[in-house]
Amino acid sequence: MDLNDANDPHAEIRAEIAKLCARFPGEYWRKLDETRAYPTEFVQALTEAGYLAALIPEEYGGAGLPLSAAAAILEEVQRQGCNGAACHAQMYIMGTILRHGSDRQKQEYLPKIASGELRLQAFGVTEPTSGTDTTALRTTARREGDKYIVNGQKIWTSRAEHSDLMLLLARTTPRDQVAKKTEGLSTFIVDMRTVLDKGLSIRPIRTMMNHNSCEVFFDNMEVPAENLVGEEGRGFRYILDGMNAERLLIAAECIGDAKWFIEKAVNYAKERVLFGRPIGQNQGVQFPIARAYAQMRAAEAIVQKGLARFDAGERPGEEANMGKMLAAEASWAAGEACIQTHGGFGFAEEYDIERKFRETRLYQVAPISTNLILSYLGEHVLGMPRSY
């Protein structure tokens, strides 16, 4: 069963990713899941093959590929039963440095990220009290001479323990001193190797999936002023610029998950025989899988349109938001159908279904919830009054 487009321009990339992923079967991921360990070997393999440098321009040692190629990489990782969450942030965080970083920052960090010498996989934005209300964040960065002093806390900063660099959003001007609440926020590159236990502390959070999530605390942490990305006070806009890329890449991962679930369910439904016939011959088994397939294809079409617009230099806010929401729902529906098809075996660890089921559920909540996507569509696409 081939769920890929015969005219896919990234078919060769997908084929190579599939070969790489074959070296990391379900057993590898199950062992990591037991101990909530980071997939160091998998990330290293992707790095050495150049895939995590896909979006870095060739002049800095990367491949200089479009976002659609990065999406193909992550989709195929998920479709092969692996977990791209360990490294996907490096792809979408990259855009902020590429678009708004200084020449010095690009020359200093990008070649090392491309080679794997440095990992940029931590994104410090969400806080316990503000959640997705980013403009209400309380972490502050105060300028003192040639450095900033950072105080505050972040939560759900995934991979902080396994990343060398963090892209951090902090308030540099108090909220009551700016004309708009989106002003006064600034973005920084934090070299966590230099400040760990020297103003920076990290506390892991155990969750229902192996996502390496953390709380991060800043206590008079010093960041060189030269690590400010772009202009002071414009960080919120810089972060927003990368949101479309983030949502499209996450959507691609969900499409990959959906394809994995559908393929698994179809194969089992054809092979499993009860009462003298394959269970897939029964409409009660067959129809949920077929419906999940239709949902996946519909979401995939929106995501592909969004990627095409992004690669053309446009801002595909509508497609990125709809694609992320629909793809997350499609992967969940496919997972549900897959578990129902397998019955009790769907809950057995050795089939990997329960692991993937837990992992894909996250994306209806993160990196943005379904309700906020609906709010965006209601206000910015349909022109209705702001709901919050």
TrEMBL record:
UniProt signal peptide: none
Keyword entries, A-Z: FAD, Flavoprotein, Oxidoreductase
Acyl-CoA dehydrogenase/oxidase C-terminal domain: residues covered: 233-365
UniProt xrefs under Pfam families: Acyl-CoA_dh_1, Acyl-CoA_dh_M, Acyl-CoA_dh_N
Listed EC numbers: 1.-.-.-
InterPro entries named in the record: Acyl-CoA_DH_CS (IPR006089), Acyl-CoA_Oxase/DH_mid-dom (IPR006091), Acyl-CoA_Oxase/DH_mid-dom_sf (IPR046373), AcylCo_DH-like_C (IPR036250), AcylCo_DH/oxidase_C (IPR009075), AcylCoA_DH/ox_N (IPR013786), AcylCoA_DH/ox_N_sf (IPR037069), AcylCoA_DH/oxidase_NM_dom_sf (IPR009100)
Organism domain of life: Bacteria
Segments forming domain Acyl-CoA oxidase/dehydrogenase middle: 122-221
Keyword RNA-binding: no
UniProt-recorded Gene Ontology molecular function terms: oxidoreductase activity
Obligatory cofactor(s): FAD
Family label: Belongs to the acyl-CoA dehydrogenase family.
Name of the protein in its database record: Acyl-CoA dehydrogenase family protein
Organism listed in the record: Teichococcus globiformis
